[in-house]
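Exercise (ungraded).
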Amino acid sequence: MDRAEVIQEILDNLRRIFQAINEYSRNAEKETGLTGPQLWAIKLLDETAPMRVSQLAEAMFLHPATVVGIIDRLENKGLVTRIRSQEDRRAVDLHLTQAGEDMAAQAPEVAQSMLIHGLNLLPAAEFHCVGEGMKHMVRLLGVEHLTPRPLRG
Amino acid sequence: MDRAEVIQEILDNLRRIFQAINEYSRNAEKETGLTGPQLWAIKLLDETAPMRVSQLAEAMFLHPATVVGIIDRLENKGLVTRIRSQEDRRAVDLHLTQAGEDMAAQAPEVAQSMLIHGLNLLPAAEFHCVGEGMKHMVRLLGVEHLTPRPLRG
DNA sequence: TATAAATTATTTGTATAGCAAATAATTTGT
DNA sequence: ACAAATTATTTGCTATACAAATAATTTATA
């Protein structure tokens, strides 16, 4: 197997990983009844609530107007509440309701869990290889410095 | 650095790769003026035209009704033509126009190219590590058998 | 202090994507 | 010849996504 073939295989495997993560997260969407962006917003709010609309928009790399719609739908489902800020009455603090927190806790991160679990069981040599391999890929793409954002579907 | 930290790092790097591919493909969208799905359809048609609507829908894992809309917009832009099949007059053969082929050729696959180029220059030991590392990741996700589909944004 | 400028969230308008169900045209099976 | 299946499309609905305009408020400036 020459190098060109191995490169093809590496790219194929990268595509498989992509696909797997997308499909697992699609399952999460079906289980929760939420869309991808809605689930993403919930997860972010679960990490760092309260958040303002502009702050959430920035974290999601979306236009604030888009986030307003997403929050509207989450509010209708009783997962998020808007509370006008006392210090700055232009601003709105977004909070998760109890149901929202339950949803965030329940929503599975299947791919992530599988990787964490599997990596833990890997023999040292293989484990080391995975770590180094990923580091190389990141370097080749020139994105070592990138702040990683959550995997989404 | 203990194993938990390395696992965190691996996940972070996976997120960086995801993000990089998404961003590079978003750039491709801006350059071409096409959306992600439109670009994806063009690429698939470029590989294997003529294709039927149902065939393209299957390849894109989308509902045929969705693909009809995408093809409508590509037809309006003069990139795709619909030709009623002679053998089966229910069916429609999708072709790329010259402009469509030009678009497919011009549309950059930046991330892919960077990886191919970079992997080629990698010393043998590191190269081997990348290949093995990716193989492990795929195995941990249980998707060795998955037919890889093109990376998209 | 009064007023201009900037900020924050929202509304409005437009386009795309996505699915399910119904429909029309055609082909295949009986 | 007629029923059943197939193929693309239409229709109706929802969710994203952005830009531009708007309203409310705060900050800066004259």
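Further reading is listed at the end of the chapter. For now, observe: Chain A touches chain B through 49 residues (CB under 8 Å). Residues 35-38, 62-63, 65-66, 69-70, 73, 88-91 of chain A lie near DNA strand D (CB under 10 Å from a C1').
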